[in-house]
Amino acid sequence: MADTKDVVELILQDHRRMEDLFRRMRSVEDDRAGALREFSGLLIAHAQAEEAEVYPALKRYKNIDDEEVEHGEHEHDEGNEALLELLEVEEVGSGAWDSKLEELVEAVTHHAGEEERTILNEARENVAMSRREELGLALLRERGRELKAGCGSVENVRKIVES
User: Fold this and answer.
1) C-alpha dihedral (67, 69, 74, 77), degrees to nearest 10
2) Is 65 strand, coil or helix?
3) Within a 10 A sphere around the Cβ of 52, how many other Cβ atoms?
């Protein structure tokens, strides 16, 4: 991971890490359960930090579409629901696990692609680097706090989905 404070680059780094973890979760030669544990924490911490620190700040910029930001929040909910369904499958590598994994991959990659094309491109064009770095530090702080609190546990994911 590059050493950056730019919120756009930090979000992109998280998206690439999620893609790596998807590959590991699909590989029968890898620690699929371990990859899922890491992925679960990253996805929840990433989404919570975006919603707490990044999205509200970006809504203040006139050239950044509020509807896209709100749509991103809705897609976080869909990703969280798909994650919970995968976490609740008892046998890693079973047919049910593989099926739920693919639903999760689809939900998250759809959101990441849309976010990159819309919100992040708009942020890159319309938000000064100094502000993007401030938001990056806030994202890192909140993401770290979430990860330290064990945000990826099945109990926490269930609580988020049910709220």
Assistant:
1) 180
2) coil
3) 16
What is the spatial distance between Cα 39 and Cα 109, in angstroms, rounded to a whole number? 13
Rounded CA separation 53/143 (Å) = 10
Backbone φ and ψ of 89, nearest 5°:
-75, 130
User: Can you tell me the distance from the alpha carbon of 22 to that of 26, in angstroms, rounded to the nearest whole number?
Assistant: 6
Contact 46, 7 (CB under 8 A): no
pLDDT in tens, 108-142: 999 999 999 988 998 999 999 999 999 999 999 99
pLDDT tens-digit map of 17-70: 999 999 999 999 999 999 999 999 999 999 999 999 999 988 887 667 678 778
Per DSSP, 127 falls in state: S
The type of residue at 90 is: E
